[in-house]
Amino acid sequence: MGFIESALIIAKKDLALEIRGKEIVTTSVFFALLTILVFGFAFDLAHSQGHQFAAGGLWVAILFSGALTMNRSFLYEKDNDCLSAILLAPVDRSSIYFGKMAANFTLMLAAEAFIVPVSIVIFNVNLMERFWLQVAALLLGTLGFTAVGTLVAAMSVNLRVREMLGPLLTLPVVAPVLIASVEISTGLIRGDELDQFIVWYQALVAFDVIYLVVPWLVFEKLVEQ
Amino acid sequence: MRGALGLERLTPRKAQNLSKSGHAPLPSGASSIICYKYYIPAGFLTRDIRQAWVGRPEKSPQTTGQKDIIRVLRGWMEQANSAPPAVEIVSVVKRFGYLTAVDGVSLTLEKGEFLTIFGPNGAGKTTLIKIMAGLTNPSSGSARINGRPVQDHDDEARRDIGLISHQTFTYGQLTAMENLLFFARLYGVEEPSARCQGLLEEVGLSKRSHEPVRSFSRGMLQRLSIARALVHDPSILLLDEPFTGLDQHAAETLKRQLRRLKDERRTLVMITHNLEQGVALGTRVVLQVAGKFVLDTPAESIDPVQFGKVYFEKVGQEHY
After folding, report:
1. Could you give the ipTM of this predicted complex?
2. Are residues B129 and B165 in the same domain?
3. Of the candidates B81, B104, B138, which is a domain's last residue?
4. Which residues 77-106 of chain A have a CB within 8 Å of chain B?
């Protein structure tokens, strides 16, 4: 069984579970939309400088919804101790991590398909004016966040305080990704030249690579009992 | 006895492995099982061959087909005679902080043995099974499955193990078929749909194969759990209190299935608290107390009436 093949089998199963239960996307989208609405009420965005807050608001909403997604993903494995059954299978244990991360990444992108249009309406700013550059920022930012969040979810799945510990561990580690993503989105909204913020793209790619390599190295040790 | 011949499963995967290892290739048409004294591929279990080999095993083969079978049988005999033990545990110790859950346990199980492990709660039985399954690494000592070190996450060793626990290892939102298909694909089972359908029929769940598992009763879940553990056709089955929570009917069904697995010469290791059941099913019995084996004896040597007394004496002496 190849690494990618087993990761895809696990990702497919996780997506099937979500399609059946609709627990993660429903709650995370709803939570994100509430966050955006609160931002909308807190600041008089229609009459003030909405573009100053739009990028931050968008990424905070994505972050909050993502925290819910990550927390939930390993709980499916905890029910009936399914993780043990997966660990028994003759597959590379890192592929379990990458399979679950791929599923979380897909679910977060699905949530963002709702979050971004609502943000455009509430913040009254066209976030997607420079479409492909913004899409690249969303993909890279989401990837980094998902990589860290999935690892933390695996670490905290057996803890009683996982609901609290997950975000507490994730947010500091993921801060560089969040900062780079906000800087890129702000630059895109302001209409800055690409040269002015390309360094943030580079930083984002670098952190993504780090956040993908580290779990690949440590996940097997992490799930050993 | 190591290398003893008897009932054996000859799956396409094993046949392929044998061919690779230089043994005679599997004649076309051979697929699975077996009977009587020799290993005979199912495709060749015609009436004539049964009579020729069971009734008159010394008779010289007459046809090319029979010669092919004999070549395969000889290969299997050689393989059987040189086969490592199904389970080999040497001086295994497992510590959790100050607690020693398994304390220097050694165990050798030959193919086809059915080991029943008894012991009070906290004796380290589940930890021992987890070490055999490769889910937990021992603090010291080694565990081998069919000669391969299980703690090295050897793929072939893991492929040989099926685990049934009181946890069902199933996803409630998925159907029985989806659950089995997921694990079948994870193990790289060929033709997973057919395999899963066949297993669901074997455990009597084919009519409810497309219902979400969360609607299943405890007995049905345990039957599904058996199907899941067998989906990759493991030669060794580890069972951790499989009768927990089952009603009388479901327990009888499970017992029947375990007897069938025993007849198929799979190696079974079962933890149970039911003395009568464990002695009746097993071929060998061990009693684990405070991480150590305090009794290791063939099941046939046990007097079922007296065993309860022996059990409480041993547990009382060592544990309380």
Report:
1. 0.87
2. yes
3. B81
4. 79-82, 84-91, 93
